[in-house]
Write a structure and sequence with these properties.
single chain; about 1250 residues; mainly beta; Immunoglobulin-like; six-stranded mixed beta sheet; five-stranded mixed beta sheet; 65 strands; about 30% strand
């Protein structure tokens, strides 16, 4: 449309041209063959257009249109659409084949370099087509051809060697006519699909593609485990392939799963590829079996789909009967679908936990829907989750459904949590899908006679009246030492047990007999130390014997990794699935399988957390250690031990008790975090662990307080539970509908669950001590220990960091938790787990314990940069943390009689920083018994410090160090500025020399005066005591700045030592230069005439021992800068290289009569840059490895470095000429 007047809005109609072609009027467009019109032409308003379907633009060629008309718009357009319906698919295919035949195979394009297309346009100026010619073997179809045919095309005006083009033609498999097939795709169900909707569910459907056809299933709304139960039939499938090949390799069936969206593109959930079962003779047996296929979405798994496919040869074969219909859809036929069984599902809907807000509003009144295989049950509504998050009626109505007999075909059970809000709104706030019923299946229940086991509840009234059921509110950290002071003193036992404590039991339980003392000899029982979390112990099964915890999801998960981020709460409950009886009238079911349920109201409890120690914590400091302390959180209660952190350790011993008063399940998650204390900055989280207290409280394994192996009234194994063993055993029988325990005195025995136990069989061969309690209580405890009850224990929990390496364990924490409900009476006294403290020991001089002293006394020291040595117990500075370089442990030489000989010898000790070496320290220790003994003289002073006394310090010798400071290489920038004018300082044993300054390192990186002034110092005679020579590289910058840009320490002089030089007469040996040219005159046959062969080394030339790395003149020293956290990272701090060497020799005794020469470095080459020609001859590569492996192979090569005149006399690059030019060889005779 073109306007005549833009203000008036009048437009003139003109012809519309697209891609250079005029578009016909819509009334002239005919419906293609095989199609028919279903509607009239209408304006397409399903776009960004105005009310009449127009869109506007500045010009036709502009290409950008808008729905709002502007004054500067000159053109407008609108689209007309008309709906058509496919009636004959075969006619459409034939019509396309006819059109392709009429085109004669031409392709069109504007120019040859443009993209070609099949439809000719007016702007096209070139066309092309490809010619084929059929070629068969001479022997006919049955002839065997060993090699493929080769096509030779002769070309004119070409050289003889290039007169033809060789090409292997393309191979085609031709068939006279196609075979007709039918493909049946059985789509039964899917599971574990990704959630694509904001509700956390999907509106799923399946698209199946086979050959040139595709079909879709129905859309199932709001489910992650849909059950379609649908058969898709592909009729009139023509395949141009032999029947035998189809039977061997049938075409693949592509199955894609989508999420239906009302707005926008449907969400792709994944795809899988199946191979159909080929049936060449119609309906055959056995029937195809449904299988689970993994749905792939990119590189990750997107769920599973249960399906199968059959491909029938539809050529006068008897096909199976059409599957039964469900509305307009075909279901999976009976021979393929899983065998169903009438089953019952019972739901124990206990409560919800930790529900997050929905639409900025708290979820306070939830209810839950359970759906499976067409069955649906609903729970009641929780009035207020803040007061009680449990349901008043947890046992729901039994759901009767038809479930598959085989577990692999079981449909999912969908859990939908709704929030009941005002005005009747019930939005879905979270979902979960139970994908397997295997762990919830049980036998069909039967009605049994109830035994008179008495009501479940408190103890006898006489006992209960003497117990206070109230407790003080709040939580606190118990100080065991203060509590022990208030406690009344008891009379001493006859057996001396002052040295036995809880730690004696712990050490005895982990097998440390040296620290447990006389614990085992007294006949006391050990406790169980689990090396994992208590929930991971196999016999306890995560304490899910009563209820399970199901995460509630909400929102869209893009991948499996992000699925955990959509958790918005937890559902507490469980299920029971069992088959219905065959004769339901004569075999009635009980009301429910869930009996003897605990009360659903919140329970006030006293929670005690005992933290023993941590193991193998991840270091957080640069020293390779950490300063850990504990932070314990329960609900809004939080305690930390920041004031008593454990410095410089990754295996701290805490020995701490935390006590809380909590109402479970309003508060149920106990979180224990191990933090790293930092004086400056925020403390780091090393790791944390979480314990679900509700699971332990409700579990029938009785995880509230571990039962010891023997019942003791006093002593180290004193009974620490608030309830007696007989009471616990009685409750166990009531909970499981067993008869009450029946006790007899002589002999002491008890009958539990129709089985008799005697005390003699349990205590046979054990030590009977005075701390044991009554016989019947001991017997009841022995029976409990056989009933899968949680024993007295210490569990080891893994620590994890959610922000850093969330799947990697950051250490372990040993602890245990006790839970005492207030309704069961007063909680017993706490256990004292205060860590042992070292005691002062006095040794008798005449007791002969010299060997014992040498074994026991160890001195631990830490090294501080720029400081002195001090013991590990010394206080650190208040400003910042001193850098920890490492520690070592030394054993002192014990002197019981004062100053003795021989003197102690200094030794090198390896400094350890974590698991790696942090250097060496030269030290020794002496331990003097200061009781009227003659001690050595006080060492000489250096200022306020004592030096090492003469008898211990190394023997020194006057020595000389000569330095050849050749130059620096590859210096990196310092403070974003290039290092251009370096100089070097050399320091050793108090001596210091400096080099001159390189004027410009880019022009000449060598020093003009490489030989420095001789350094005279006192060095130890023995090489092991030699101090290091420190090399400091400085950059001489403007304004007198000389920053240190790199350092290096030469730790040994052994390779640089030489004899004392002497002055000798210089002989006129002539200048140093090349050899004579007489070596070039060689002739004759190479091998026959006895010519010498070259040397082929099997390693790098630098590694050949006789060449010594070519360090006979100068050596290469790496220059370091920056902080290295470990030896592995030390190589990352290299910023350059220093080229030079040293000579160390003793000074002559008579320096006057034996003068030294000026230097030992003579006949030095010039230090100016030399222009050279470098030739690299690469022969071949050997044993190359794949790129992913560490090894890469070997390379045979040779290298020549020559000055330009030498290179011109010996040219290179003539490898294609005869090899007799350099040296010139005569022709062989």
């Amino acid at each position: 449309m073109l306007p005549t007047n833009s203000k008036s809005g009048h437009y003139l109609e003109v012809d519309v041209v697209q891609h250079g072609d005029k578009i016909d009027e819509k009334e002239k467009i005919k419906c293609p063959e095989g199609w028919e019109w279903t509607r009239n032409w209408q304006v397409d308003d399903n776009r960004a257009v105005d009310g009449e379907g127009w869109e506007y633009s500045v010009d036709v060629s502009y290409g950008v249109y808008g729905a709002i008309q502007k004054a500067y718009h000159l053109v407008r357009r609108r689209r007309w659409v008309r709906e058509r319906l496919l009636k004959d698919p075969k006619a459409v295919i034939k019509q396309k084949e006819l059109e392709e035949f009429e085109k004669e195979g031409w392709e069109y394009a504007p120019i040859f370099t443009a993209k070609f297309h099949h439809k000719e346009r007016k702007i096209d100026f070139v066309r092309r087509r490809r010619w084929h010619r059929r070629m068969v073997s001479k022997g006919g179809k049955d002839a065997k051809v060993s090699m493929p045919p080769v096509c030779l095309l002769e070309l004119e005006d070409e050289e003889e060697s290039k007169s033809c083009l060789r090409n292997i033609p393309r191979m085609f498999v031709t068939f006279e006519k196609p075979h007709k097939y039918q493909m049946w795709a059985y789509i039964y169900q899917a599971r574990n699909l990704l959630a694509m909707d904001e509700s956390g569910m999907n509106d799923s459907y399946v698209r199946v593609a086979f050959c040139k056809q595709s079909a879709v299933t129905e859309v199932l709304t709001q489910t992650l485990c849909p059950t379609w139960d649908q058969t898709l039939i592909f009729d009139n499938v023509e395949i141009y392939e032999s029947v035998e090949n189809i039977a061997k390799s049938p075409p693949s069936v592509v199955v894609e799963v989508f999420d239906k969206d009302t707005v926008g593109k449907d969400g792709f959930l994944g795809r899988c590829v199946m191979s159909p079962t080929v049936r060449l003779h119609g309906h055959e047996t056995p029937e195809p079996q449904l299988q689970w296929f993994t749905i792939k979405r990119g590189d990750e798994e997107g769920g599973d789909i249960l399906a199968a496919c059959e491909l029938f040869l539809d050529e006068d074969a008897e096909l199976p009967f059409t599957p039964p219909m469900r509305g307009d859809l075909y279901t999976v036929r009976s021979g393929v679908r899983p065998k169903l069984q009438r089953s019952a599902i019972e739901v124990l809907c206990w409560g919800v936990r930790n529900m997050k807000k929905f639409e900025l509003t708290s979820v306070t009144s939830p209810s839950i829907e359970f759906e499976c295989a067409g069955g649906l049950v609903q729970s009641d509504v929780i009035k207020d989750t803040k007061k009680n998050p449990n349901f008043e009626k947890p046992v729901l109505t039994r759901m009767i459904v038809n479930l598959p007999v085989e577990e692999m075909y079981t449909p999912a059970l969908n859990i939908r949590v709704r929030d009941n809000r005002s005005f009747g709104r019930r939005p879905i706030v979270g979902v979960h899908s139970v994908r397997s019923f295997q762990k919830y299946r049980c036998a069909t229940p039967q009605i049994i006679d109830q035994t008179d086991s008495g009501p479940r509840g408190p103890q006898k009234k006489g006992i209960a009246d003497n117990v206070s059921t109230k407790s003080e509110e709040g939580s606190y950290v118990v100080n065991i030492k203060e509590w022990k002071k208030v406690k009344k003193k008891k009379k001493k036992e006859e057996i001396p047990e002052e040295s036995l404590d809880w730690w004696s039991k712990f050490f005895a339980s982990i097998g440390d007999e040296e620290k447990c003392g006389e614990f085992l000899n007294q006949g006391y029982d050990k406790m169980t130390v689990y090396q994992t979390e208590l929930e991971k112990v196999q016999k306890f099964n995560g304490f899910e014997d009563f209820i399970n915890t199901f995460p509630i999801y909400r929102g869209r998960a893009k991948s499996r990794e992000e699925e955990a981020d959509t958790i918005v709460g937890e559902f507490k409950g469980t299920f029971r699935v069992y088959p219905m009886p065959e004769d339901e009238r004569n075999s009635p079911l009980p009301d429910t399988v869930f009996t003897n349920l605990p009360p659903g109201k919140p329970v006030e409890c006293i929670v005690r957390l005992y933290v023993i120690k941590a193991l193998e914590l991840q270091p957080r400091d640069d020293s390779g250690t950490a300063d850990p302390y504990l932070v314990v959180t329960l609900g809004d209660r939080k305690f930390d031990d920041k004031d008593v952190y454990k410095p410089y350790t990754v295996n701290p011993v805490f020995g701490r008790l935390f006590e809380f008063t909590a109402t479970i399940p309003l508060v149920k998650d106990l979180k224990i975090a191990v933090m790293d204390y930092d004086l400056i900055g925020r403390d780091d989280v090393i790791g944390e662990t979480q314990i679900d207290l509700e699971q332990r409280l409700l579990s029938r394994h009785r995880a509230t307080c571990g039962c010891s192996k023997s019942y003791c009234k006093s002593g180290p194994n004193k009974w620490r539970d608030g309830r007696k063993p007989r009471t616990i055993l009685r409750d166990w029988c009531v909970m499981r509908n067993k008869s009450l325990p029946l006790y007899t005195d002589e002999p002491c025995s008890v009958v539990v669950d129709e089985q008799t136990y005697t005390l003699a069989e349990f205590e046979e061969g054990t030590i009977i001590h005075t701390h044991l309690g009554k016989e019947q209580s001991r017997l009841a405890l022995h029976v409990l220990n056989k009933l899968n009850i949680v024993p007295e224990h210490v569990e080891t929990r893994g620590l994890y960091n959610k922000t850093q390496q969330p799947t990697m364990e950051q250490g372990k924490l040993q602890l245990w938790v006790d839970i005492f409900p207030v309704t069961e009476g007063k909680a017993p006294a706490a256990v004292d787990i205060t860590p042992r403290e070292p005691q002062d020991l006095m040794f008798d001089r005449d007791s002969g314990h010299k060997t014992f002293l040498e074994d026991v006394f160890e001195i631990e020291a830490r090294m501080i940069p720029g400081g002195n040595w001090r013991p590990a117990s010394a206080p650190w500075t208040n400003v910042g943390k001193d850098g920890f370089l490492g520690r070592c442990v030394m054993s002192p030489t014990v002197r019981l009689h004062g100053h003795e000989t021989p003197e102690p010898q200094l030794q090198w000790f390896t400094i350890k920083r974590g698991d790696e070496e942090g250097g060496d320290i030269l030290a020794a220790c002496e331990l003097f018994l200061d009781e009227d003994a003659e001690l050595p003289f006080i060492p000489p002073m250096r200022g306020d410090l004592y030096t090492v006394r003469s008898g211990v310090r190394p023997k020194l010798e006057r020595s000389a160090i000569e330095i050849l400071c050749w130059g620096v290489r590859n210096m990196k920038k310092f403070e974003l500025t290039s290092v251009t004018s370096p100089s070097i300082e050399f320091e050793c044993a108090g001596g210091l020399v400096q080099s001159d300054v390189i004027k410009d390192i880019k022009k000449n990186p060598n020093f003009e005066n490489p030989v420095l002034t001789r350094m005279i110092v006192n060095l130890p005679v023995e090489e092991m005591y030699t101090p290091a020579l420190n090399i400091r590289v400085r950059d001489n910058r403007s304004f007198g700045r000389r920053p240190i840009v790199g350092v290096h320490s030469v730790r040994s002089f052994q390779k640089y030592r030489c004899a004392t030089p002497q002055i000798i007469e210089q002989t006129d040996s002539g200048p140093r230069g090349p050899q004579k040219k007489g070596d070039e005159e060689k002739c004759g046959e190479f091998l026959n005439q006895g010519y010498d062969k070259m040397t082929v080394y099997q390693t790098e030339l630098e590694k050949v021992q006789e060449f010594n790395g070519f360090e006979d003149f100068i050596s290469t020293f790496p220059i370091y800068r920056g902080r290295a956290k470990s030896r592995e990272e030390e190589a990352d701090t290299i910023v350059g290289e220093f080229k030079g060497t040293f000579r160390v020799y003793p000074m002559p005794q008579d320096e006057r009569n034996s003068p030294l020469p000026d230097t030992v470095f003579t006949n030095l080459p010039p230090s100016k840059p030399v222009e050279c020609i470098v030739r690299l001859y690469v022969i071949k590569a050997l044993e190359l490895q794949p790129r992913d492996d560490s090894g890469t192979g070997k390379l045979e090569m040779t290298l020549e470095i020559m000055k330009r005149p030498e290179a011109e006399a010996k040219p290179a690059g003539l490898g294609r000429d005869e090899p007799n030019k350099n040296p010139t060889l005569d022709e062989p005779k």
